[in-house]
Amino acid sequence: MPFSRRTIVIALLLSAASPTCAQTQEKAQDKATLVREALASPYGKALTAELGKSLRASADPACLTDKGLAADQLEPRGRDIVIRWGTHMLDGASAFIDRQTSDNPFAGAAELESLKSNPDVKRYLAMEEPIRQAKILDLIFEHFDRYNVIARVKLGGVYPLQTGNEALLRLNPTDATEERLETFARKSRSKALKRFLQLSDQEAIAQSAAIKKASSPPPLPHTFFKGVETDLAELCIRSGK
Q1: Is residue 241 part of a domain?
Q2: Nearest-CA neighbor of 53 among 162, 157, 173?
Q3: How confident is the model at residue 17 (pLDDT cuts 50, 70, 90)?
Q4: Which residues are the signal sequence here (predicted)?
Q5: Cα–Cα dist 28/31, whole Å
Q6: Which of 232, 227, 234 is nearest to 66 (CA)?
Q7: What tens digit of pLDDT does each residue of 32-79 get?
Q8: What's the rounded Cα separation, in Å, for the pair 134 and 156?
Q9: Strand partners for 239
């Protein structure tokens, strides 16, 4: 059965949020580090603060008293939950994508890898880091919220595109960073950078083709949050009808 366009797009988004050539191989294997660093960014801190507001508004007061939990403990503990389950989502999605790409290797992978040492490519990738972090954050909070709705967890949403929080949306660095990257690439005379960008586009196309060849559809991202309601219950967030 052919995959839906949405299923393929989800898989590619997860792949795009996975570690790229900007990270070392060791760091690339540590998804928890990626999530923590994304949450430490200005956009990540704003989303964490919004999560704290939601937890404080949604937690059962009597339960908090029984557990001896203060309201100011909810945000840092909620952040820990996001790190744990967001890491679980990235690990699971990356495992699927790694299997597909290893079975269908990209022909230009070696050249793409060699270009990472070029100073212009390094600068480009350093400039691109806010986009990668924002993508990780958006994926985590979108599917965290989605799972909570499906599982009837009584916690207000955080993902700004879903909640319509304009203040949070303005803090997303993606648009501004893309403009800077486009300007940098347009003005650059670096053949190495132009070749790197060309190969990166080709790799994305090859990856899409590899995912389409999978014998079963990629897992939907929100399914990686199954069980998060147990952790949220420890913060007095109720679920069920």
Answers
A1: no
A2: 157
A3: low
A4: 1-22
A5: 7
A6: 234
A7: 999 999 999 999 999 999 999 999 999 999 999 999 999 999 999 999
A8: 21
A9: 153
Average pLDDT, the chain: 87
Q: How far apart are CA 120 and CA 128, in angstroms?
A: 12
CA distance 88 to 91: 5
Cα gap 155→28, rounded to integer Å: 32
List Cβ neighbours of 194 (8 Å cut-off, separation of 6 or more): 185, 188
User: What tens digit of pLDDT does each residue of 125-184 get?
Assistant: 999 999 999 999 999 999 999 999 999 999 999 999 999 999 999 999 999 999 999 999
Does the residue 9 lie in any domain? yes
Q: For residue 47, what are the domain limits? A: 5-233
Q: Are 224 and 143 in contact (CB under 8 A)?
A: yes
Distance between CA atoms of residues 1 and 14, nearest Å: 22
Residue at token pair 């079963």: 216
Count of domains for the chain: 1
Residue 225 lies in a domain: yes
Q: Residue 101 in contact with residue 210, Cβ under 8 Å? A: yes
What is the enclosing helix (H) or strand (E) of 125? helix 119-150
Q: What pLDDT is attached to residue 97?
A: 77
Q: Which of 69-83, 200-214, 226-240 has the lowest mean pLDDT?
A: 200-214
- How far from 123 is each of 25, 26, 211, CA to CA, in Å? 18, 20, 30
On whether residue 239 sits in a domain, the answer given is no
Has residue 232 got a pLDDT over 80? yes
